[in-house]
Amino acid sequence: MEQSIKEAKRPPYGILAVLMIGAFIAFLNNTLLNIALPSIMVELDVDASTVQWLTTGFMLVNGIMIPTTAFLIQKYSVRRLFLVAMSLFTIGTLIAGVAHAFPVLLTARMVQASGTAIMMPLLMNVMLVSFPIEKRGAAMGIFGLILMAAPAIGPTLSGWIIEHYDWRMLFHFVTPIAITVLLIGFFLLKDKKEKVNIHLDLISLLLSSVGFGGLLYGFSSAGSKGWDSPQVYGTITIGVISLIIFILRQSKLERPMLNFTIFKYPMFALSSAITMVVNMAMFSGMLLIPIYVQTIRGISPLDAGLMMLPGALAMALMSPVTGRLFDKFGGRILAIVGLTILVITTYMFSQLELDTPYTYLMVLHGVRMFGMSMVMMPVSTNGLNQLPTRFYPHGTAMNNTLNQVSGAIGTALLVTVMSTRTETHAAQIAEDAMKQATAAATPPTEAAIAEMKQQIAMKAMLEGINDAFLVATFIAAVALIMAFFIKRAKPAQDPVEAQKQS
Fold it and tell me: C-alpha distances in angstroms, 79 versus 2, 10, 85, 205?
């Protein structure tokens, strides 16, 4: 596939358009679900720690599936992989739309995730081999604009649907679009691939699944079960051991499933580290802002979605701009400016009050997303630019895998900080309230005590959220320090090609 694209006179815009529409639908579906979680909890009678598996389970399957995509991209044609990915996503969406029990809905989400896991690395790889390095930033910018449009409209659209219809309508809305995209791909995608004689190493697949799956499951469970739970530290330990064995095995295989030698290219290694750290910080906003807005402030799902709309739009509209700026100036200056904005705005979110104005939250979130738009795509593209062409499938697979792992770790860490600090603050505030009540001349009434308990719970949760944002500020600051070491990457010489030429 890479060779046929290289030989073409111009990039395969038809293939790219079909892939981008498919990726857009997958992204949109994921962002639609976040605001629907409270409604699903009520109807299917599950608690918060259970319903979060609709998101965590999705990430878990992605984390297990994505490492295999480097092999799949080398083995099969774009057409074949796209049709399989879109079919899985469509089947999952159909099942989710008729689910009347939580296990069925969770299974449907995991089927969806297996399709999405193939789609994103496939699209990234086609983008990398379709454009020369000097035009790659602009191309990635357009790619970012299309994909960022999904989280821009997702929360608002979801809020409107939830207020007017059943949550299943979210899946019914996506189903006909997914079927249409699948049919378009079936008729329009015509690329062929020469038969490649490579085989998937089943032991590597098993080690990868246990390794990444164990890490994701362990960190995702920490928020509800606590870090001292054997289920948490046990699965993390098994995951780490499996990953060490997996990495050692890859270094000995002639055709590794996931090639870890790509980390010897310094700009790729640095970009991977920065994007992992930024992912952890980014999840603070995606996770904590909706909790603050809906739980503490009591703002409706539609208004919560509208509040986050300007930030998502800013990120989407800036994507092609940052792409062109990247082509002109490189990733270093963009990353430093963007991460400086991210650190400042994340710190400002750690100073929330019970009555922080709605407009202030909207503007601050918008500025934060503006800063984020300067970081993710330029840093990732700069790292991938240093890799020789044959390593592109491994680079995109590695990036997507690390994004899932860092996202899960960031979510778990911040949920744990919020939960533990909320309990600590609740105990302290309750103790102070008891001292005041004891000192008062008349004892408080039952109604006053009930109101006091509610105020203590709200104030404690607010302080817990602020503490989690403060931790996220320090995480973002680590990424800012690393950004100063970014250099403009040029394609490194492939040692295999060099040996052939000599």
Answer: 13, 19, 10, 24
